[in-house]
């Protein structure tokens, strides 16, 4: 970039004023991250989320996490009973690898703030916290069984049948996927019938607004998770973009359901990796017919209603594992490669942080030129990052704004004891 880009300083939460103004009346604000293990990405997303909640009335945060674990956090944030201990204790429920994604002190600080904020408000005005992801097949099945058994309704038989179908595979969805990859026998019909039965039952018993209604919504959501997770794991074995598209399609469907739950004027904040929130049509993902939440949200709600904020850094440290399921480590993040988006911002800003707004990039190379944009996953090998950690991107179209941090630091994980069973290697390198 020969012509310097227009940037805004980024030092304190007050420096987010231009970003708040650019967001305007957007209904959905997508907040990204270039890794799942960088402290600054979490703390600045939290700072922006607090302002969106306080100043623009956003009603919930939806994250790249499992529905059952996140819904437990949501209930703790909204309940009237004084049973809340601390966010750190609550977040220890995120015990599946990679545990640090949501089990960290940065998220704990946000959850404690949300709890305090909610206590000052009536139940309908309390801010929610939900998971968008599709991985919790077994956990969601168990939640459904608990719900329908307690309700004693007509969906019990269908839930039990679905549970029995998956039972031979224990809680290992990869074993299920491998077992049904080359045979006609699978559990697709069972989970579909369970979802239909549950929906019929819920329509027959309308509930008043409040946590009781959310609990019923959660039961239906868990059934939807099992349907889409079953599809996801089968597609994962076959390879290609199908499993990614099932996953992001599920996350978009969940986001839309949550917006409907909260009413026609509801507003959502989404926390996910850049690879999910930055419109896939302006990256090399489009060549493989891969879609993501950023693209689907713009297509479903219109570009003016969706505001995507990308994040990135030049160098620093990060929490990640050297291989799938490995213990997390603090790893160095080397200086970004020559010619990359991050390297050019480093040169222009001379080591300072900065905020860029796409609406101000007209007439610059960033509006029409593709740059390599770094993406670090939960598995990371710094010594090899130049061979695959950069996503070619048309940055001014992929995002509506970009937060650049010259030097970042590793996330601070909670001392969570990981569950014994490591999930299958489901994330691509960018995740």
> Can you say what the CATH homologous superfamily of the domain at 8-64 and 267-408 is?
EreA-like (biosynthetic domain)
Output mean pLDDT.
91
Regarding quaternary structure, how should these chains be classified? single chain
Describe the global form: globular
Helix and strand element order: EHEHEHHHEHHHHHHEHHEEHEEEHE
Low-confidence stretches: 426-430
Q: What is the CATH topology of the domain at 8-64 and 267-408?
A: EreA/ChaN-like  fold
CATH architecture of the domain at 8-64 and 267-408: 3-Layer(aba) Sandwich
Total strands: the figure is 11
The helix/strand class is alpha/beta
Beta fraction: 5-15%
Main beta sheet: 9 strands, mixed
Helix tally?
15
Which radius of gyration do the C-alpha atoms yield? 21 Å
CATH top level of the domain at 8-64 and 267-408? Alpha Beta
InterPro entries: Emycin_Estase (IPR007815), Hydrolase/PRTase-associated (IPR052036), UCP036794_erythomycin (IPR014622)
Protein name: Erythromycin esterase family protein
Organism: Hymenobacter lucidus
Task: Give an account of the 3D structure.
It holds the Pfam family Erythro_esteras. This is Erythromycin esterase family protein. InterPro entries: Emycin_Estase (IPR007815), Hydrolase/PRTase-associated (IPR052036), UCP036794_erythomycin (IPR014622). The protein has 431 residues and is an alpha/beta fold. Among the domains are: 8-64 and 267-408, EreA/ChaN-like  fold (3-Layer(aba) Sandwich), CATH 3.40.1660.10; 153-247, no CATH class. The chain is 42% helix and 13% strand. The chain contains 15 helices and eleven strands. The strands form two sheets. Strands 1, 2, 3, 4, 5, 6, 7, 8 and 11 form a nine-stranded mixed β-sheet that branches. Strand 6 and strand 7 (329-333) form a beta hairpin. Helix 6 runs antiparallel to helix 7 (156-166). Mean pLDDT is 91; it is low at 426-430.
